[in-house]
Amino acid sequence: MTGVNATPAGPVHVIGYGSQRRRAQLVFTVANLDTGAVASTSLVPGSFTPIHTPGGTWWLPYAPIVTDLATHAGVAASTLRDPDFPDEPGRLPSSGLTLPIQWQPDIPEQDRRKWEAVALADRRSTPWLVLIGRSSEPPPPGEPARLLGRLCALADQLHVDLVLEARPSSIGRGLSWDVRFELAGGAVPDYQHRWIGDLPTALATIPADRAATGLTVANAGLPAHYLTEGALTPAAVPVGLDGHPGGHDLDQLERRMLADAEQHGGAQAIWRNRHWWHTGLRPADTAGRFVRGWEPPRPAYWGEQIPTHPCQRCTNPAGAADPPYCTDCYGARRVRRGAVLTVTDLRGRTVHRNWRPDDGQQHQPPTRTHTDQPSGSTVWQLSEHYQVGPLAAGFGVEPTDLTDIDGEHVIDQHLRNGVSQLAHTGGDPVDAYLGEVAATHDGARVMVLATDWPGPTLDELAAVVRGLGLALDVTVTDHRHSVGRPELLQGHTWSVRVIDPATPLTVDPLPTSACLPEAVALCHRYLHGALRATVPTDPEQPMCVPQQPATTGPGPDVAGLITEVRRLAAAHPGEPATVRLLFPTDRASG
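The structure corresponding to this sequence follows.
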């Protein structure tokens, strides 16, 4: 039972005066990425029956409404994703609509509707809540101990720490658990990554790709070391990717961490050197932060330290300090001429490379490709040893499928192609390249993910957008004019935007995605902002309540759209071209 009744006829209710006028309407929508089905319902005064709470108030919970819509759209509830929380599938709204204390079931209907309108207009959530999911339930994650073993094996292969953490929950009830990879030697993060009530649940809900997001947390104080020769040697796939190395007593781990947390305030168990190291977390001098009681031993895979020198430009007393705009140290006030590259698919294949400044003696020397006459700066192409892009073929992907370890953005083009730029003052192109790489990656570790894009395809996104009654703008820039100039953008750059079809067509002036799948993934990930922008600003205009059955015939002509926008871009190299994909719609209004 959802508590939602038939929507009464009549104009939309508006609360307030002047610039404070607000629409008393809330729309829920569930969309199916596999079939394009869309189901929605509208909450307006008189359309719902609240329930009584133990505290004596009246409210309408949102979760039953979403679950009912998921059934109508053929969506498995465990796959639903709130666009505000795209990394947490199955997260249903825990909130609801709380009625003012003046609302009572026995007051006149006119008064009940007045207070219902006040509640709808004063809510703090978005007026249009859209959740997107798939038709089928995902496969079960497996036994928590087995999952832990897999993560331990991946940590061994990536040469990083696996951290199990329990610290006081930010909502003041019990402990919050997290599971993540971290680079060794870093401080405890300032904030909790996740809010999960126990260790087995954390292991079941945090797969390897989500645990890897811990490697992206900024930590400027990380030590920088090359990997030992033994750590660079390709090894067989660890047993833990299919089982677990040596076995892990999950209950014992959790009991030990709970005891440490009770004594110190928080606890960590760190998997390093194929061994568990336990430490308490005690509150730091700054409120809300924690420090470890002690640090585990030095990682066995650490080789010699990457040499670190003070930045001459920033520390020169005769000159002005440049941070954060210094192009030598990028605000770090130190320069490291070396880095470690790690490319992985998080499924058992990993490649490591030490990038040293003297490696150039063993490889083809850099090639100067361009000299800018007005400034005197030069552009150099480094040998394949210093390029990330050529490693893509070994993982069965394209160079533009190589992303940061969190899988969100394609690796920078200069890293993919090994491009170094020198100012007119000159210098060594390899030194300049490694200095920039080390300054822009904490601990001088370049962590790269090499997999296919996991998000929806453009066809799936288009089917959902059609069901929502919206349109898609696809923009591309053809950079064929920059062939032979590796410091300039190469190939094509893309953007995909969800737009209200009534909005005039405008060209995205700067599409930045290196490939179309990246543009689609970013559009899907940040869909909440685009959807909110389509809500009518006039409070007198009711919001639409989109409905669409599962599509059985041909979908939108996405291939034709891409062909057309590529043709337009090719006719005007260097200039963005935009094509809008419109859909016939009978989008209903509330």
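The radius of gyration is 27 Å.
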